Amino acid sequence: MSFSPDWAIPPGRTISRLMARKGLSVDELAAELDLPEPSLRSLIDGDFLIDDQLAIHLSSALGSSSSFWLNRERLYREDVNRLRSVGSLVLDETWARMFPVADMRRFGWLPADTSRTTVLENLCRFFDIETSEAWAKKYQSTVAVAAFRSSPTYRSSPAAVAAWLRWAEIQSGMIDCKAWDAERLLHLLPEMRKLTLRNHPRRFVEALRQLCAEAGIALVIAPAPKGCRASGATRFLSEDKALIVLSLRYRSDDHFWFTFFHEVGHLLLHGKDALFLEDDSEVGGDEEVEANAFAERTLIPEDSQSELFSLRLRTDSILRFSVRIGTSSGVVVGQLQHAGLLQRSQMNHLKRRYNWEDFELPNL
Question: For a designed S-S bond to 266, which of 106, 276, 279, 364 qualifies (C-beta 3.0 to 4.6 A apart)?
């Protein structure tokens, strides 16, 4: 087994020892080497490179051959580079520990390999970067948004959020979309709302994806790994293509559809430069309020709002109302609960519950 010390000794150490043996001062040796005094001090510290000419001067002033001094320089630089590489590896291993690797493997985002080097390589391949520093630069805006959205009671992991969004981005590359068209999206909203009436994900997910693609949106549904509290997110991947990603965090139809139309609201109402992340934290702003209002108006059309708030809070009344406006009864119940007209424990039998198995999506 080869020995690799965790230190690097500069040639300057040998130079200092020989200077002391010969009784040479710094200025005396500097004169013999034809070097400025600051350069000699840098040489002793290991910051000044020994070239062929300097090796000859060192041989003449201190002894040993010029090849000895060149070899000392080469070995020192090799040790420095090796230690820098080890330091980088330690940094990368610290970086890799930020990610929910176990979940990423379980979801099929990373290969099931347990060696540390392979984990690093797979993470770099997943994020399409070469170093952890490159990741920090590429995902700094995502990390900033995720950190900002963290609630006081639950600190989400920006790295986990970035992994979830990156998987959605990878999946979006396999979804063919027409160019982004806000007018087309507005026109398609009633058809999208009608899909809430379908009782099983297999009966609406693909149709919803197709409608989104018609307007230039890639719709991705992906589980959130440990540390990611997001229920939905929206961003523009380019001028012509938008992304909506949903995590199915609450697994009920009212939350699923409200989150979807909330994200649509961001696309229609707000700019193309921002990432919008929904994680139920208390951090909000005008844009979140506007997206909420948009989702409410889309799910319960404005001309039906007054009727909603005057409904008899009975199963038959809610079912008739939901059919009449083309919105699922679960969504209606969710809106009544949000308005405080129903308690959170009431009428939940009218909501549909989803499981991942129901979706049978290829990206799971």
Answer: 276
